[in-house]
Fold PHD-type domain-containing protein.
Amino acid sequence: MICCDFCDEWYHAKCIGISPTVMSNLEAYRCPGCAFRQGMSHLTSKRPLRPSLKQMIGLITRGDALQIEVPELEDLKALVSLGNDLLAEIIDFERHFLHQCSLESMLTHVDQLKEELQSKVSAVARYETLVILEPAHQKLRTMQWFLRACRLIFETSPAPRYSQLLILLSDAKQDKLEFSTLELQRFYHELEHNVERAIQWVAQVKALRMDSQNLMHLKDEAEEISQYLQLPDAAITNFNVAFKFHMGAR
């Protein structure tokens, strides 16, 4: 059995296609339902078989070059025009969003921004029942990721789980997100730095090479890391056992 790190529902590994070998090395898991709710279902689901906006433009260009009148070519042009208008709206919204991307002020209107962003996501989804609007995806995903990260990091009490931040960071890397402002870049690099510290801490505990001096260092580091995230229960338990053993033997 494996538990989703977001909804805490349990799943049979065989039912969700995870082999025992993969499961033994898995540090974090997000179920498809949570992936969908977080706007990340594109990482696990297949792309719909629809033409892209670029392909539509190419088709119209070829149609205009013909010496005969192509039926419904004007409808295709109207569809492309609608896509370009929608993309322009998203670019304007992104500019507005980035203008408000100060962490000091973001949390005061994160719900409003999420609602406005969701309306753009829904508009793109409706348009993509006919045509894939690829240029909009990267812009929307960066904004979705940042809002999700803000809520996870600043609104989770006492702190987000180690596994949740692993997935959050993995999402940004898999989507190859680009952060166009210094504020977003600093936010991402701080997240990356803190998660990397936690990864190194967990690796040292797993290695079981812990002398008394190193144990004290790991104890202090765990207290610092725990201000930002919750370290895995198994790693904490192993560390506590080793700490009590070594300290008791002195």
Residues 160-250 form one domain.
